[in-house]
Design goal:
The protein is an alpha/beta fold and 551 residues long. 30% of the residues lie in helices and 15% in strands. The chain has a ten-stranded mixed sheet with strand order 1-2-3-4-6-5-7-8-14-15, sandwiched between helices. Strand 5 (130-133), helix 3 (159-165) and strand 6 (169-173) form a beta-alpha-beta unit.
């Protein structure tokens, strides 16, 4: 059910209290029935929304950063048999000078009970955390998210609706991505645009503190895959001066952009080194299942087009994730050679990070790729399997596990790679032919795709291939910011990587988690058994964690 109410502007007439507390919801509803027309500010915002839906190039209009609270809808949805009623403030442009207002806008949803002075799960209008999910996948553009009763991947309520049911205020920003173009064909969403946009969205929320319910000191980001990496970047780079020139160019609010917590599902981070740990795990497997992405398939997988997937395409993949074929392909001789080069390089890189386990043990690898770090990774898989067994699952068929009397005593990482299969060719991210989404992410205004690693550039198979700017590459690696004195890192983290996920190596999120733990941050890191590449599959657990750090 959806109702449209024109809200009266009583907030300006009151001398105390936040704007959202100006009039009870019931009073506002009665007034709406006799209001002849929306206020001029509301009309202006409506025009901005219409423009946001059609903008494809740099918008010359200057947008107000003040959230118009008089223009909203009241929506009702079902969550597990219960009604969830909330106010929707949609398509709000969050920068003064957007490059593409269709993406640089957000939807904000607030439980209606807060306007009546009620509490939800112990939260009030003043204390309710703000859930900040992004919809980015494959570094593609992401539109502002909306609540759904039947999510494409889970078949149940999505994270936004679940958050509202738990009493959270939701701010769901859109963000530019690697395929955004201006009318003249110039690319407008290459790195670091997606992160800059998310930072601007956080600043917009703080600029509008008090206009609607929600605690702007308890912002919790959430994302999956490239969106998980984006969530991690947002958590790791708070208030860094490195992004300030980009934010000023957009006309972002002059506010902080640090967040309280970061929830990251299968985050593919450390892109300039991620090819090495992939080969460390999958280097002895010479067949892979990723297929070239046909034109339009990304949109179809994201649910934007009602088209049939090509025969043989695995369809239970996150939006805009690399397409997977049901048929294996062989690595080329060149790819096998590159795989060996990358695998050999990983121990040296890993050792340079000086990581330690929770008990202080140094996590290292020898030249052959064996050592305490390998044992640490194996233990993550073993703990996942043990939890599954303790929950009643029969894992006797899993050939890479050693199980004795119901206890997991060992695992074979090489056998794991064979049984789980390899998804991506070598290199997994900096493709030799510049075909990977990450190559495109590191393009420029005039170049669609570029290399971003020395190995990718050295073994390149495309004429006149270029290397991305070193500084831009660094802007998309959270490891470069954790521990810096001029950065405010989120104090709380939740990181998940499924045991069946082979879009990246488990070593990648493990390194992120370890780096954060070593710097003293609170990290909840786990490897859910049998889970492939995806996110938002454990929403009750997600919000139980969020509640535990917010109360």
């Amino acid at each position: 059910m959806k109702y449209k109410w024109n809200a009266i502007l009583l907030a300006a007439l009151l001398c105390t209290g936040p704007a959202w507390a100006a009039a009870p919801a019931g009073t506002q509803a009665e007034s709406a029935s006799v209001t002849a027309a929306p206020a001029p500010l509301a009309a202006s915002q409506t025009a901005a929304q219409n423009t946001a839906q059609t903008a494809a190039e740099k918008d010359q209009k200057t947008y107000s950063l003040a959230l118009d609270t008089s223009d909203y809808t009241v929506d009702t949805m079902q969550y597990r048999g219960q009604k969830v009623v909330f106010r929707s403030y949609e398509n709000r442009v969050y920068v003064s000078h957007p490059v593409d207002a269709a993406y640089e806008s957000m939807n904000i949803y607030v439980p209606e009970d807060y306007f009546d002075g009620k509490t939800i799960h112990g939260y009030t209008a003043a204390t309710a955390p703000i859930f900040l999910p992004n919809s980015v996948g494959g570094y593609m553009p992401g539109k502002a998210g909306t609540p759904l009763e039947n999510d494409r991947m889970s078949g149940g309520p999505n994270a936004i609706l679940t958050a509202l049911a738990y009493g959270y205020v939701v701010a769901a920003p859109g963000a530019r991505g690697r395929t955004n173009e201006a009318a003249d064909g110039t690319y407008t969403g290459k790195a670091p645009a997606l992160l800059v946009d998310m930072k601007a969205a956080v600043r917009y929320l703080r600029y509008n503190k008090g206009r609607i319910p929600g605690n702007t000191d308890k912002i919790i980001s959430n994302g999956t895959s490239a969106g998980g990496a984006l969530s991690a970047l947002l958590g790791a780079t708070g208030n860094s001066p490195d992004y300030e020139p980009y934010l000023k160019e957009l006309g972002a609010a002059d506010e902080r952009d640090d967040i309280f917590a970061s929830s990251d599902y299968c985050p593919i981070t450390d892109l300039d080194h991620a090819d090495m740990p992939y080969e460390w795990v999958f280097g002895d497997v010479h067949t892979y299942y990723q297929q070239a992405m046909p034109a339009g398939l990304m949109k179809m997988l994201a649910g934007e087009e009602a088209a049939a997937a090509p025969d043989g395409t695995v369809q239970n993949r996150p939006a805009n994730a690399p397409a997977e074929s049901a048929k294996a392909q062989e690595l080329t001789k060149r790819q096998i050679k590159v795989s060996a080069v990358l695998k050999k390089k990983f121990p040296s890189y890993l050792n340079s990070l000086h990581l330690r386990a929770a008990d202080g043990t140094k996590l290292t690898l020898d030249k052959k790729g064996n050592g305490s770090f390998k044992e640490y990774i194996k233990q993550l898989y073993m703990d996942s399997a043990q939890h599954a067994i303790d929950s009643g699952k029969d894992l006797s068929h899993v050939g890479w596990l050693t199980i004795e009397n119901g206890k997991v005593t060992d695992m074979d990482l090489a056998k794991y790679a064979v049984q789980i299969t390899r998804l991506k060719a070598a290199p997994a991210f900096d493709a030799l032919d510049l075909s990977a989404g990450e190559n495109s992410e590191f393009g420029s205004a005039s170049i669609n795709a570029r290399h971003f690693t020395a190995v990718g550039k050295k073994y390149n198979t495309v004429k006149k291939a270029k290397m991305a700017d070193k500084k831009v590459i660094g802007l998309l690696n959270p490891l470069n910011y954790i521990g810096r004195e001029d950065v405010t890192v989120a104090p709380h983290w939740r990181i998940r990587h499924g045991s069946a996920d082979r879009d990246t190596s488990l070593a990648v999120p493990a390194i992120l988690a370890l780096r954060l733990q070593n710097e003293g941050y609170d990290v909840n890191f786990a490897v859910p058994w049998g889970q492939g590449h995806g996110g938002d599959y454990d929403l009750d657990e997600l919000f139980a964690w969020a509640d535990s750090i917010c109360r």
